[in-house]
Amino acid sequence: MAATLKLEIVTPTGRVYANDVDLVTLPGREGEMGILPQHAPLITLMGTGEVVARRGTQEDRILVTGGFAEITGQRVAILTVFATDEKAIDEAGAEEARRRAEARLQEKLTPEETALAQAALSHSLSQIRIKRRGR
Amino acid sequence: MASIRDIRRRIRSVKGTAQITKAMQMVASSKMRKAQQAAVNGRPFAELAGEVMAHATGDAGDFSHPLIEPREVRRRGVILVSTDKGLCGALNSNLFREVARYDAATTSFIAVGKKAGQFLARTRRKLVAEFGYHDTPTYGECQAISRCAKELFLNGEVDQIEVVYSRFVNTLSQKPDTRLVLPMGDVTTAQAKVAGRAAATGATATDYLFEPSAPEVMEVLLAYLLDFQIAQLLLESKASEHSARMVAMKNATENAEQLIKDLTLESNKMRQASITKELLEIATAQMAIS
N or C: which end of chain A has fewer CB within 10 A? Predict the structure, then answer.
């Protein structure tokens, strides 16, 4: 019996995370879900939020934006457009990005530009949130 | 006949041109590496997405989606991916020759890149939309393109969508190529491949649960795959563009250097001729005096 799960997080720009973990918590479309080894096979859509991977006493948090997860008893594969490892988040940079996005939203924009700016804003906001929660 | 001064001026100007083309060559080669790297980075995603897709279609029952269903082809859609700028050899003209094969009356075009837009407008094709893209195409740009293509296809305005792009063979050669993206027929081939692999390893198929529901998951999955496919094609076009430009600029630099050599030779010859002439004059004058 496999005692660990293989967690893989992949985006179009490369593999963000790959490790053997004990427990994965991921933001499902219909609420948080915790995945342990020997989980029933499942394919689920994900919302925006953080994936928490626990290895022993250590926790890794990875921010994801949408996408889906394929879960089997041995493996969790997550496909998403954006994923950022918590350790890679630069709080000042995110704060700066938030300000920029907010300023952009004040200007007159086409619908597509607005959507882009909004996406940037929500991404930077969730980055900041993740970073500050630990304190 | 040109004087020495004229020739020297020409040498200076050619030298300037050579410097510029040399710089452009360097820039293109570094951009090419970046585009190639980005295409390679996308590979794990492609593999995984294909795998999930195959598992999902295998377990979703007799699943069908308008994006997969092939239809009788009466009107075609073509996404033409070109460069924004010229100075890249015959890349775009090869591409446009490929496009000229399509029947203008029944084909709608989506232009990606400025040159494609200009070409389609000049030849009076039916242009539905025009998009731009950056040196390293962002996912957002690809999403916009694929959304537009999807709408065309689902509205029934076209029955098939192909992408015409420059395939990256190697640094020295890029070939115009056509890839069918809608309907997404390769989903079923991927399915067959995974089924074959499962049979080979003796693994039993797992019955997947879907959350919220199979059709919803499939909907998102198909959209992801389409976006991703288009992103890969854009990246490949970019890699082609930069390598074509690199080669074109390398040739231009070499030509300029050859030209400088020839001109220098000519100017030296003229200088020599004028010195000889002066010496001759001095000698004649001396003889006349004595």
Answer: C
